[in-house]
User: Fold these one by one.
Assistant:
Number 1:
Amino acid sequence: MIIIKRVMESLLRSNDETARILHHEWNESGTLAVNLIGSTGAGKTTLLEATLPKLRDNARILVIEGDIETDHDAARIEALGIDAVQITTGGACHLEAHLVEKAWRSMEARGPYDLVFIENVGNLVCPASYYLGEHLRVVLLSVPEGDDKPAKYPKAFRTSSAFVITKIDLQQHFDFDRTRARNYALDLQPALLTFEVSARTGEGIDGWVRFLKERAAAHMPIPA
Amino acid sequence: VHEVSIMESLHEQLTSLARANGATRVRRVAVEIGELSNVVPEMLHQAFLAFREVEPLLAEADLEIRSLPVRVRCHSCKQESDAEGFRIRCRLCGGTEVEVIQGEELLLRDVELEVDSEGGEP
């Protein structure tokens, strides 16, 4: 006998369920979770290195690093004296919620944390499909990558709330039109906030840090 | 390329649906993939074929993929229209205050299962 079952469930159901559990816990503890997405070499770790020293006096911070191999990035964060935990995916091109949950469980007792940064695997495609329970999704694009990337990788920009253009100190060497990049991104997500920064010169970092501070301050624990 | 990961997740869902319904085989799987979902239908289909080779539950199953274009509802003119490529705005009045009403799906819609004549668990 053949039966037809109506299912109407997301193909990422189990990922999304785990992500919602994390999101709920972070709401209760007043922890703001930020998911950083960008290509390999976009400057995700370097942006964190420029950002964290300006946040650490006001916030307890954990960084969850995602890479295919090595713990180099976690070591860079720990060198700043900030808690970090490395996830190596062993080949997978994106982080999934159960990996983040495992990393979080290994560190949560050392908290409480006001801010959790999740640095995704370097890739502008696959990470965009996986909700990790974050409150803020931030997409990075560096000047050398080209200003047309938002149009080519729509989902990452569509699902983000902030867009950080990195390495603007290299502007003179590349035909990167920031207005064009911003407009492509706004076509996909009209509510997107754009920041233009150079971690090397420090340009634009203060505005970006102010944004994170405001969001973290607005994200108070939910009373029981 | 995360279609294999998505196929793994679909495989888990199909296995538990088969178990819950006392099914021995899956015959047909229907999914909806929106154009904004970031999933390439051909690649998902390839991943499905690879799983079918090694998973007896899926040995006779077909995957039906319905691809859904992006549609928006405009807050200004209240009309619905198809988005032009990935430009998420109203095609009729150009308004950017729109709600995406179709195109973000990544949905297991329904499955056809082969069950023993006594049927599965109630």
Note: The first strand of chain B starts at residue 23 and ends at 34.
Number 2:
Amino acid sequence: MMPLLKHFLILSLALFSIGLYGLITRRNAIAILMSLELLFNSININMIAFSRFFDPSIYGEIFAIMIIAVAAAESALGLAIILLIYKKKNTANADEINLMRG
Amino acid sequence: MPELYIFYILSFVVICSAILVVASNNIFHSALSLALTLLGVSAIFGLLGSFFMAGIQIFVYIGAIVVITIFAINLTKQKIGELSVSKWKTQAFLISSLFFISGSYVIYGSDKFFKPMRPIIGYEPKDNTNIIGAKFISDMLIPFESISFLMLSALIGAIVIIAKDKKER
């Protein structure tokens, strides 16, 4: 038996739900960024599955390449910001960072 | 056909290591299981027949993002004996399980998603790396250039953010 499209969709949905749980519950900002990578990966599975199952062209994979590039840029900038905040406040927890609170 | 069993094994690995990523107390362990998750997702891309994306996934995610995440973990310090998850555990579990149940209700409710996959083993897959490269320099030229501009601005931005306070030294 070949795997159907719904198998890939359920896998992507489960990965997204796990990432959402981590995004809400984690306190460390680096762990929040890691949960965000899980979300990006579930979206990429969805993109490539739809591109392979429905569309004879490959625009889904091109969109997934774009998502990977944006995720790399986002991760680099986010970790730079976290390191800067750690230098200033000596913590990396997202609920203790209140530099912009008035 | 072995593809379905391969898919089940891969998705078991992916789901278990993703749960370890969000639930582990030691953040270094969660970074290592993030690498295992990304490797499993790359194998799923290969199962879908898109080998270029599998290679890109390993290069970019495991080679770059996991490595700089481990750098950042080693440069910051977690306080001893502190809880790594917040107090909103049950609410977060309710929200994510509600999301999962409603999404799977949508997926199982429509018969469009029961389409079987084209076979890969015993069938020569189209080399879509060639097609992707040709699309990128002909049809998708403007998104490609804007992605390169985004990468350049992210590089300059990261340097500016880290090396900002020269007066303090």
Note: Chain B touches chain A through 84 residues (CB under 8 Å).
